[in-house]
Amino acid sequence: MHVERLPPLALASLAYQAVVVAFISYFAWFWLLTRYMASRLSVFSFLTPIFGVGFGVILLGEPLSARFVLAAAMVLAGIAMVNRPACKTA
Fold it and tell me: What is the residue range of 64's domain?
């Protein structure tokens, strides 16, 4: 199959993937690694599916189920638990 001309939507999608997803996200990730421990930051990768579904709901009008809301709340609770300060025992 030979493509002579790409539609504007395809070019915009490619530009978004290159600039926002690849460049800005990696730039932010490596900047954060200079300030925080990698073990603390790594749990935030679990937010990726939450953002994906959230943007699908906001931008594409996808339905939001109660099961997803419950699962997202559990993921957020887990991230909060992992990142809270350690308890000091005497």
Answer: 37-84
Question: Which phi-psi region, left, alpha or beta, contains residue 61 (left: φ > 0; alpha: ψ -120 to 50)?
Answer: left
27 and 44 assigned to the same domain: no
pLDDT tens digits, one per residue of 32-48: 999 988 888 888 888 88
pTM for this predicted structure: 0.61
Residue 90 lies in a domain: no
Report how far residue 23's alpha carbon sits from residue 11's, in angstroms, rounded to the nearest whole number. 17
